[in-house]
C-alpha cells in the first residue's frame, strides 16, 4: 500500500503536488481574506482562453519529437505582424481578427518550415538551439519594429520613427472574441467566444492527430528508429510538427492580444515560450508526450495561481510582486523537473 | 647544388608561415569576422582612440574573471555553464551584506570575497548535482536553472528582507520596510581593487613587453644550459651556440609574440614622448594581476590530477568511468570551481561599476560571458584562456561601438543596441547549432 502510494506520487510528480497545494493554500487565503471567488474564477477563465492557444502550440511540437518548443517567439512575431497589418488597413472587429490570422498563417508557415529544417540539423539539442533561435528572433524583431514601413498613427510613435512599445487595440481587436456570446452569471463572466475558439482549434489538432499524417507524426516522435524502419520520412514529419506549432503560436498571440487589449512589441515575447512550456508541463505532459487535456489542465492551473496570488499578496503584504515571482519560480521549476525526468539514451 | 638546396629550404619556410597563417584563418572564422565587424564599427562610430581604450580596459579588466570561469566546465564536457549566474548571485548577496554592515575599502572587498565563497561553493554543489541528473542536457538545464534561481533570488531580496530577514537600513530597503531597492550605491567598495595601483597604458605596455621578453630569455637560457650539461655528458656532438639554439627551438608562436612585444614596447615609447591623449589611459594593475593569476590557475590545473580527470571525463565520460575516475564527483567539482570563480568575478565587476542593480546585475552575467568566449573562438567542446581574453576584448568593443555606430548609420542608437542583443543571442545560438550539427554528422558517419 505504502509502496503504491509512493509510486503514485512519483508518477504524478512531486512538483505538481507542490503546485496544486500552493494553489489550494492561496484559495483558502483568498476565502479568508474575503476576496470574491467568482471574480477570481472569471479572471482564470479569461486567462485560460488568453494563453490556451499558445500552450496548445506545444502539442504538435512535442508529439513530432522536437520536444518543448522554446522557439515559440518565432511564431509570436509572425502573429504580431498579422495584427500590425490589420491595423495598417484600418480594420475593426472580427474582420480585423480574421485578417490578422489569415495574414499571419502563411508567414508563420514559411518561418516554421525554415525553423523545422534547422531543428532537423541539430537533433538532440533542439531545446537549447530553439531557445536561442527564439531570443535572436526577438532581437531581430526589435530592429524590425524600428524600421518596418508601418504608417498607421495608432501604431507608430508620434515623434521619431518606429512602432510603439505597446499599441492599444481599443475599437479594433479589443475583446472581440471575449465579448462574443459572453455569459454572465452573477459576478461570473465567461468569455465564451475565446473559449469556443480555443476548443475549436483543440478539436482540429485532435482530429489531425487521428488522421494518417497525425499518427505517422506521433510515431516519428515516439520512436524515430521504428519510424525509419516503417519507411516514414522522419525529417518531413518533424517539419510538419514545427510548422503547426509555429502557426499555432502566431494565432495564439493574436487571441492573446485581443483578450489583453494591447499589442506588446519589442522584448515582450522573449519569455512567452517559457510560460507556455511550463503550463503544459504542469498539466501533466512530458518532454515526449502531450495531449489536449494537458493543455487545458495546465493552463488553467498555472494561470489560476497567478490570478489568485496577486490579490492575496496585495492584501497581506505591502510591497513585492508575488505573482511575478511565483510565475518565474513555478515555470522554471517545472521545466527543470521535466528535464531531470528525461531518461538518458545510451 | 648547394644553392638549389638553400632556395628550397627558404621556400619551405615561406610555405610554413603561409600554412601557419592559413590555419589561423580557417580555425577562427567567427573571431576574424568579428574583428572585421569591430574595425568597421570603430570607424563608423568615430570614437577617439583614447576614449575607446580607456573604456575597453576598464570593461575587459572587470569582466575577464567571469569569462574565465567558464573554461573548466567546458573542459569537463559540460558545455557552457549558464549557471554562473548563481555564482554571481552569491557575490551580490555578499556585497549586499557587506554594504549593510558598512565595511569600506579593501577590507570590505575582501570580506565580500570571504563571505561569498561558502555560499558559491554550496550553490555550485547543488548545481553540479542537478546537472548530473540531466546528463546530455546540461546547457538547457543550467540555462533554466539560472532563470529559476532568479525567481528564488527575488523572493529572498524582495519579499523576505524586512519580513523574514530583519534588516533596517534606509539607504537600501524600500520605503515600506520590505524588500531591497532597485539600485544600491556601492560607494564603500567602489574601485576598492582598481584604485590600489593604476599606471598609464604606455608605461604598462613597456613594462609588460620587457617582462615578457625577459621571461622568454630566462626560459631559453635555462633550457640551453640544461642541454649543454646533457650533451657534455652523453655525446660529443658539436655544441650549438645560444643564438643557433633559439633559432632552432623557438616556434612561430614564440617569435610572433616576441615581435608583438617589441612593437608594443616601441609603441609605448612613442606614445610616452608624444602629446597623445592615450597617455591619460589608466590600467588598473591589481585587477589585471588577479585576472593574470586566474589565467595561471587555469593553466596550472591542467597539469594536476584533477585537471587530467576533467579532460578525461570531457572526452568520454564512459571510458573515464571505466578507468576508475569518479565521473559524477569530477563534474560536481568542475561546476563548484566555476561557480566560485563566477562569484569573485561578479565582485570584480561590481567594484568597478560602483552601483548594484539589485535585480538585474546578475541576469546577463552568464549570457554575456558565454557570448564573449564564443566570439573569441571557443566552442562547446574547447575553450582556452586566449579565446576568453580575445573574446572579452571583441565583445566589449562591440558593446562600446554599437549604439554610436547605430546612431551614425541609421540615425537611431537603439538599432545598434538591438543589433548588439541580436549578436549575443545569435552567436550563442550559432555555436550551439554548429556543435549539434557536427555531432549529428559524426554519429551518422560512424553508423555508415
Tell me, what's the shape of chain B?
A: globular
* Assembly state: heterodimer
**N→C terminal distance of chain A:** 34 Å
Please count the helical segments of chain A.
Answer: 14
Q: What value does the average pLDDT of chain B take?
A: 84
Sequence of strands across the biggest β-sheet of chain B: 1-4
Helix content of chain A: 55-70%
Structural class per helix/strand content of chain A? Answer: mainly alpha
Low confidence ranges of chain B:
none
Roughly how many Å is the radius of gyration of chain B?
A: 25 Å
H/E element sequence of chain B: HHHHHHHEEHHHEHHHHEHHH
The portion of residues assigned to helices of chain B is: over 70%
**Total number of β-strand segments of chain A?**
4
Bulk shape of chain A? globular
The residue ranges of chain A in which pLDDT falls below 50 over 5 or more consecutive positions are none
What's the story with the biggest beta sheet of chain A?
A: 2 strands, antiparallel
Fold topology:
The complex is a heterodimer of chains A (346) and B (448).
Chain A: H1 2-12, H2 14-32, H3 37-56, H4 58-63, H5 73-88, H6 93-121, H7 126-147, E1 166-168, E2 183-185, E3 188-190, H8 192-210, H9 212-222, H10 224-229, H11 234-260, E4 262-264, H12 272-282, H13 292-316, H14 322-340
Antiparallel strand pairs in A: 1-4, 2-3
Chain B: H1 2-27, H2 29-45, H3 49-68, H4 71-75, H5 84-101, H6 105-133, H7 138-160, E1 183-185, E2 198-200, H8 201-234, H9 242-249, H10 252-272, E3 282-284, H11 285-303, H12 305-315, H13 317-322, H14 327-353, E4 355-357, H15 365-375, H16 385-410, H17 413-447
Antiparallel strand pairs in B: 1-4, 2-3
Give structural notes.
The complex is a heterodimer of chains A (346) and B (448). Chain A has helices at 2-12, 14-32, 37-56, 58-63, 73-88, 93-121, 126-147, 192-210, 212-222, 224-229, 234-260, 272-282, 292-316, 322-340; strands at 166-168, 183-185, 188-190, 262-264. Chain A has 346 residues and is mainly alpha-helical. Chain A has a domain at 38-269. Chain A has a two-stranded antiparallel ribbon with strand order 1-4. Chain B is globular, with a radius of gyration of 25 Å. Chain B starts with a helix and ends with a helix. Chains A and B meet through helix 7 and helix 14 of A and helix 7 and helix 17 of B.
